[in-house]
Structure formats: C-alpha cells, structure tokens
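Design a sequence for this backbone.
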C-alpha cells in the first residue's frame, strides 16, 4: 500500500490539517483529540504525528492539552495498565525498569549523521540513512494494541526567551506521567508559536513488554536525528533513555545553543541566602550521581533546579532558568537526617513515582535510607530475597544504586519563588565538581572566568557511577559534566563558554568543589552536609565579604572564615587539623591530573583553544614552583 503521507495533495480538510495527515489518523483518533491537534494549526506537528502513526500502528491516538483532567488520565492509565503500581501512601506509585535498563545506555545512544556532515570521532554515531532504517524497523508496528500518547511540553518557562516547545509521542504512560511531573505543560505554548517548526520532537515506544517491562533490551536503540531535531527511542523504559525532554533534548539543545549564542548545561540552579536576607544564585555542573540534587536541596537554601539549566545574557546579566520543573533524583542515601526536604516529600501523601526500589507491604525501601531493609520483597529483578544472584552470579542488591524518585518541584518546601521567571535568575557563581578521591581541595575559586572554564570546567574528571550502564569508579574525563551530551566539537564548546561572558562587565565567579576527597585510610574527609558551608563561603565571595588564600590551583578559604561558617550553618566545631588535612595542596596528584588533561587536549581533541593549554601551563608552573619551595604536600597555613 502506498503511504498516504507520500501523496502531495495540498487539499485541506474543513479544518486546518492537511488531508493526507487527517487520513492517516482517521479511525484511530477520537474527535476531541482531533480537535486539539487541529487547533494548533502546526503543519510540522501534524506531519510528525501522522508519520508516527503510520510507522508505529497504534490502535488509538490520544492528544493531550494542558488541562488537569488530561494529566489525571495519564496518571490513572499508568496504574491501570500496570506500568506503575500504587503504594500505601496516597499518590505514591512505583515502577520497574528491566534488568538491563537501569541507567542511561551510552552504548546504544547514537547520533544520526547525514551525508556530508561529520561529528567528532569519539561520539557514538551512525550514518543517518542506515540508522533511520534500523530504528524505524524496530519501531514498525510497535504500538499495535496500544494507545499512542501525544503530549506537548515546554523546556524552560513558557512565554520566555529560554523556552523550547517539545512534542513527545510515546506508548508509555509511565514516561508520560514522569514528564507531567518534570516539565511545564506546553499545549498553550504551541498555540502561541503557531505554524512554526521551532520545536523538538521525540518518538518513543517501550517495545514488546513482559510484566510491563521492555522485554527486548538487545533491541534497545536511542537515536538522535539532530539535523531534524528529532529523537527516536525504542525497547527501553528507563527515564534517561526515554523521557525525551531530559538528556535527549539536552543533546539537541547544545547544538541549538551553539547556533544561537546561548548555553545549555548539565547544571543545578539554587539560591543561597546571605547576610541581610539577600539571595545569591549559583549554577553547578557535576556529572551524574555526583551531588547536583543534594547541593540544590541544601536545607535552608532555595532550589530552582537540580539537573538542567539554560543560560542567556539578558539586560547585561548572565541569567539562568531550570529547563525542568521537577526532579528525577537518586534515592540512594536519602535519609531523614541529611535530606529533610526530600524525605518529607517521599513520606507524605502527594505525587511520587519510585523507580527500581525494593517494595514490601506497599512501602518503598532503598539503599542507605538509614534503617534496616526487609530481607525480601519485590524489586526490578522480580521476587527478591537477600543474597539473590543475577545470571552472571553477581549479587542483586535490595534496590538498584540508580533507583530514583520523580516529583514535582512544586511539592518542595524550599522551591525558589523565581522558578518560573521568564527571564530566569541572575547567576552569581558557577560551580564545577566531580568524584575526585585524591586531587582537589573541597572548595576553591578560580582566578577569573577563563581560568575557571579551562582549569575547572574543561579539566573536570569524575569516577563513573551507576547512573550510566558500565563499570563504576573509573576516573573519566567529563568536561563541564556535559561530555555525554555534546555533539559539537569540544574546542568549540569551550570557546562558546569562554566567550559567553564577553558582553558582561562582571562575569559570575567560578568555583570548584570536591565532596569526595579521601584521606589516607580511604575514608571521605567530609560529611554529607559540609557542602552547605562551602556554598555559604562562595556566597560571601560573590559579595566581596570573605578573604581567600592564593594557592596554585585557585583561591582557597581561610580557616577562620570556614570555622565560623561551620559553627553558624551546622553548629559544628571545625578543627584546624581538619582544615589542614582537607585543604592541603596535593602537588603530585595535581600535576598528574594536568598530565592527563593536557594529553587529552593535545592528542585527542583537535580544536583545543590555545588559551586552555596556556592556562594549564601556568597552573603547572605554579605547582612546580610550590613543590620546589615547599615540597609535595603543602599545608594551606604555609601558603
Ligand atoms: P544525576 O541526577 O544523575 O545527574 O545526579 P546528581 O548529580 O544530582 O547526584 P545526587 O545529588 O543525587 O548525588 C548522588 C550520590 O552522591 C548520592 O548517592 C549521594 O549519597 C552522593 N553524595 C552527594 N553528596 C555527597 C557528599 O557530600 N559526600 C559524599 N560522600 N557523597 C555524596
Ligand atoms: C543523569 O544521568 O545525569 C541523570 C539521570 O540526571 S538521567 O535521566 O538518566 O539522565
Ligand atoms: Mn543528570
């Protein structure tokens, strides 16, 4: 049969939709959905839906608008169909992903490269024609017997220079429900943009399912058709692989930002309260599972976002928005004592999706929750008892390390009042951090923007975690925590960052933190809550109210300031010994890091901006000089 979409018939229905598209939907779409879709008068959207229907062959199609009734339908369907199951507390549900679907799957996430284009050879990629044929064959007929869900959302606030409208098509009510919690509704935003092609498109199918879990992980594919700003995802449910607006959109946004002169970052955004009630905003980039959510959630501060931020220069200020309005957060180690804000949301009635936790008697359990876990229950592996092994003989823990919760920021007591400001918030400081057991001090400030971008952001390394599938604990280069999502040349991306602040008279300060520094005994040198002190020190620095000591790697805090802040913020006595141990400059480790980073920029990255190498060379010289003067391990008191 010839595709109805192939005809070139310009004839319109009595409504706005092209007849060929209307024909493709006929018999499957209900009148209300047709009305909603038609009212948007967006030819590109109509084409996207019609093509998806032709390919995936759903039984029915439902188009959603911004109404609470529609969100309600999604929530109910997720439970009715069994993708989510209710828990004892009202509004709480849980969802499992498959055994081989517990994190972002970088292996099968590929860019579709059109003929004549080329991407950095380190990026996972496939020719566009070949890739499209492959993923389309996996999607063909994938929605038979199911309903196709057509949702419209907005990345960033609506009616804002930051906003990017998005259309998500999926057959998963879990994915759709997650998006309801995580993103701003966008039907009205589409109405506002009219017949524009300025929107991202995501097509997802969970594929064949067993027990409501994607059953063919070997056929999992996540393909990024960047030349059309469209993503295909199939045979997976894990949100990082399916929720188009999260990391898949980030890949498109980075390219769009590059073209348009703004920045799309893997960063949290938060407000820190300073003396006199002022609020100073910070954005921070740490790789997956390295502390963004925990930092954005510091008790007593305010949260804008925990994972994704867009930056623009507006009215002479660097301003940021949260791309999202919810949290897909790691649940491991969330405890009543350390994380009172999240704990509260996770233990009272309200909308929460728990994924890949242990369930027993209608209650969720996770690793590091601060209490003994049941010895049996149900988890992502099915019925579970302590000691259960997987097919390769490895122990299956009670809950997955990358188990998560999905909530709306609106449920959180310390949500910042500026979350929806269409112009975002002014950024006082940028923070880079990663899992670094042996090199960097807990907090330091760059000498200037260029030093911060080159020596902190572009030199970021972190040990891998359970948030991505693969080996954990491997020290990996991950510039600006954004390397997984970068499909523009690395040097170009660094230059975009370097040049971004050129129009500003005072750029934000740049800081580096390290929550994961270990002592000789292998134990962490800092407690979970110490980050609250580092943030307060940065807040004072941004406002010119704290001194610093010049070290070769940056400016570090003075003991007296930190001691005072520990007392004030955590009511803790911070000893001079702790200060010396934590802030000792570890010269050999810092030099070794420079060796690793310089090697990458000299031999693997072909468009390294020369200034990056100059900054690193100057840092090396400062470290060498210190070594000559004072040895390998230099106390901050002797700087
Ligand atoms: P993504 O959502 O994957 O992007 O991660 P994230 O950067 O938001 O990470 P998150 O804040 O959820 O932290 C993840 C893990 O880091 C948790 O298991 C925490 O226990 C651990 N963590 C956070 N802060 C600290 C800290 O100060 N010290 C130590 N040792 N671990 C920490
Ligand atoms: C991350 O892995 O950085 C996350 C979770 O924030 S995911 O949705 O998988 O991207
Ligand atoms: Mn993340």
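Sequence:
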């Amino acid at each position: 049969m010839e595709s109805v979409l192939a005809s070139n018939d310009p004839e319109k229905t009595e409504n706005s939709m092209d007849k060929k598209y209307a024909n493709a939907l006929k018999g499957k779409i209900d009148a209300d959905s047709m009305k909603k879709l038609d009212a948007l008068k967006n030819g590109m959207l109509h084409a996207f839906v019609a093509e998806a229907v032709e390919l995936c062959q759903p039984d029915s199609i439902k188009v959603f608008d911004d109404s609470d009734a529609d969100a309600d339908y999604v929530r109910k369907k997720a439970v009715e169909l069994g993708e989510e199951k209710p828990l004892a507390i009202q509004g709480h549900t849980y969802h499992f992903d498959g055994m081989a679907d517990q994190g972002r799957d970088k292996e099968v996430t590929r860019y579709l490269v059109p003929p004549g284009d080329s991407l950095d050879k380190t990026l996972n990629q496939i020719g566009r024609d070949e890739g499209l044929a492959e993923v389309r064959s996996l999607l063909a007929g994938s929605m038979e017997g199911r309903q196709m869900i057509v949702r419209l959302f907005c990345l960033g606030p609506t009616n804002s220079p930051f906003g990017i409208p998005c259309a998500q098509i999926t057959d998963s009510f879990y994915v759709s429900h997650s998006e309801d919690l995580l993103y701003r509704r966008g039907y009205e935003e589409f109405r506002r943009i009219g017949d524009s092609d300025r929107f991202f498109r995501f097509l997802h199918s969970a594929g064949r399912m067993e027990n409501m879990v994607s059953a063919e992980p070997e056929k999992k594919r996540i393909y990024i058709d960047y030349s059309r700003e469209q993503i295909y995802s199939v045979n997976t449910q894990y949100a990082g692989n399916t929720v188009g607006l999260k990391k898949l959109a980030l890949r498109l946004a980075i390219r769009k930002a590059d073209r348009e002169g703004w920045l799309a970052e893997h960063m949290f955004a938060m407000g820190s309260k300073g003396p006199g009630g002022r609020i100073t905003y910070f954005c921070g980039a740490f790789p997956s599972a390295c502390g963004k959510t925990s930092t954005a959630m510091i008790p007593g501060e305010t949260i804008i976002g925990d994972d994704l931020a867009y930056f623009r220069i507006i009215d002479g200020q660097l301003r940021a928005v949260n791309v999202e309005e919810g949290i897909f957060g790691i649940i491991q180690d969330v405890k009543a004592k350390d994380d009172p804000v999240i704990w509260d949301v996770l233990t009272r009635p309200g909308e929460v999706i728990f994924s890949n936790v242990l369930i027993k008697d209608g209650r969720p359990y996770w690793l590091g929750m601060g209490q003994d876990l049941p010895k049996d229950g149900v988890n992502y592996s099915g019925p579970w008892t302590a000691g259960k092994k997987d097919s390769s003989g490895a122990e299956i823990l009670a809950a997955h390390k990358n188990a998560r919760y999905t909530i709306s920021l609106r449920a959180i007591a310390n949500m910042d009042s500026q979350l929806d400001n269409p112009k975002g918030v002014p950024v006082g400081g940028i923070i880079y951090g990663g899992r670094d057991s042996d090199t960097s001090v807990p907090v330091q400030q760059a000498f200037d923007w260029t030093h911060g971008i080159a020596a902190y952001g572009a030199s970021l390394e972190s040990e891998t975690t359970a948030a991505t599938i693969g080996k954990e604990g491997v020290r990996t280069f991950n510039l600006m925590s954004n390397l997984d999502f970068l499909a523009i040349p690395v040097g170009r991306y660094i230059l975009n960052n370097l040049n971004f602040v050129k129009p500003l008279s005072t750029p934000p300060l740049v800081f580096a933190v390290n929550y994961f520094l270990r002592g000789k005994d292998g134990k962490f040198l800092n407690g979970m809550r110490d980050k609250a002190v580092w943030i307060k020190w940065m807040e004072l620095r941004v406002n010119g109210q704290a001194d610093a000591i010049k070290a070769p790697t940056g400016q570090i805090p003075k003991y007296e300031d930190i001691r005072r802040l520990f007392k004030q913020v955590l009511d803790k006595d911070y000893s001079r010994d702790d200060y010396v141990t934590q802030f000792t400059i570890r010269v050999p480790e810092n030099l070794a890091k420079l060796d690793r980073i310089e090697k990458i920029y000299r031999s693997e990255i072909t468009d390294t901006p020369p200034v990056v190498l100059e900054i690193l060379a100057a840092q090396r010289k400062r470290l060498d000089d210190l070594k000559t003067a004072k040895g390998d391990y230099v106390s901050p008191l002797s700087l």
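The first helix runs from residue 19 to 25.
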